[in-house]
Amino acid sequence: MAARSRLPLALGLTAFGGLGYYIYSAGGSPKVAEKKFEHDVAAAGAKLGITSSGKETKKQGEVLLKEAGSKLDSTVNSIRSDLRSDTAKFDQKVGETVTAAENKAVELEKEAAKRFNNIKEATRKDLSQTVDSFDKTVERKAAEAKSGLSSWFGFGK
Question: In whole angstroms, how large is the CA radius of gyration of the chain?
């Protein structure tokens, strides 16, 4: 079983305990408990330096919510703008990298073709020299054989 947070349970029990306290101290009357709660909230606000009526507090809360909403919207828009900018930079960098890779591939292809042609030429020269050497050897041996055979029949030197 996964471990669950006990925070919701603690907050719920605290809220019910506070509600029970106010109703008990008001003698079971919910209206009296509500008035006592409002009085305690006003007293705590006075101690903290917050002195305003419920309507003023509501208006201040609405103003604060609007300010917070506009700050949040501004932050979100800033993040979106930064994200678009970063995305554009990333796309540009990827494009540059792809272009560089394509250029390198073309360069390597040219270099490989050049090496292949060099090896092909060297092999052709070696093969040509080998064939020429073989031909000369065959011709020389054929001439020797011809002179040896001719000398047997009296046609020789």
Answer: 50
